Amino acid sequence: REQGWHLRGSPLSWQVLAYNRHTYATVSQRLVITVIPAPGGDPPYQGEFLVGNRNVEELLPAAVREMFLQASAGVWEQDDLQVINVTSALDRGGRVPLPIEGRKEGVYVKVGSHSPFSPCLVSATSPQSRFRCSLGQQPLASCYDTFAPHFSIRWCNLTLLQVWPSPTTPGPVWGPGVLEEDGSFQPPTEVPPQDLLPGFLVTLLVPLAVAVLLCLLLGHLMCCRREGV
């Protein structure tokens, strides 16, 4: 990322650098992305699936993501799903797969909906299912796995989240120091002149008088208090 702005609706300028894993050839491209809020707001119900038989670049095409949403709708029992985020398992601490045919790095795909989770998803994340996962067994699921055979879901890594919108921050309040629309600025009246001489004399003479007294006292102690004087 080269530069960007945090305001929604403002453009984000990204510079993407990619390399070939076999030849190590590199290529760069600059992308300008405009971020706008979702029409219906962020979906409050979000589920994150770990796809074990895919790499992150294989989930980026729109056709593949649409196929994943159709498979997700089968277990979610809703059709208003949308892909929120796609993250490589390597960015979550996963290991680089061995250079063996068919081994993939894994992808975390977060899907959101405005409808509650289905009983199938809830049962897959229940304490009983987590206990079965700790024993190396498959979690409980009361529905047919519609992801197979295209997507191999690791159900023990399923995460369900409920994200509620945070309260909006109130906007600025017009105060007395802010001009109204089409208002004219009225400068403050001229301050009457003040006599600063007394303050100047006090500031200067008081420390000077204290210094003179200290000098006289020190001279008396050093010159007039000697033995024989």
Please specify the SSE layout and strand pairing.
Blueprint: E1 11-19, E2 26-34, E3 45-51, H1 62-76, E4 82-88, E5 107-113, H2 119-124, H3 127-134, E6 159-162, H4 197-224
Antiparallel strand pairs: 1-2, 3-5, 3-6, 4-5
Question: Can you tag this structure with a few keywords?
Answer:
229 residues, alpha+beta, four-stranded antiparallel beta sheet, two-stranded antiparallel ribbon, disordered N terminus, Sarcoglycan_alpha/epsilon, transmembrane, transmembrane helix, Sarcoglycan_C, membrane
Mean pLDDT score: 81
Overall geometry = elongated
Helix content: 10-25%
Gap between N and C termini, in Å? Answer: 86 Å
What oligomeric state do the depicted chains represent? Answer: single chain
Number of helices: 4
Q: What is the H/E order?
A: EEEHEEHHEH
Number of strands: 6
Written account of the structure:
The protein is an alpha+beta fold. 25% of the residues lie in helices and 19% in strands. The protein has a domain at 41-162. The chain has helices at 62-76, 119-124, 127-134, 197-224, and strands spanning 11-19, 26-34, 45-51, 82-88, 107-113, 159-162. The strands form 2 sheets. The chain has a 4-stranded antiparallel β-sheet, covered by helices on one side. The chain has a two-stranded antiparallel ribbon with strand order 1-2. The longest helix has 28 residues, at 197-224. The chain is elongated. Residues 1-8 have low confidence and may be disordered.
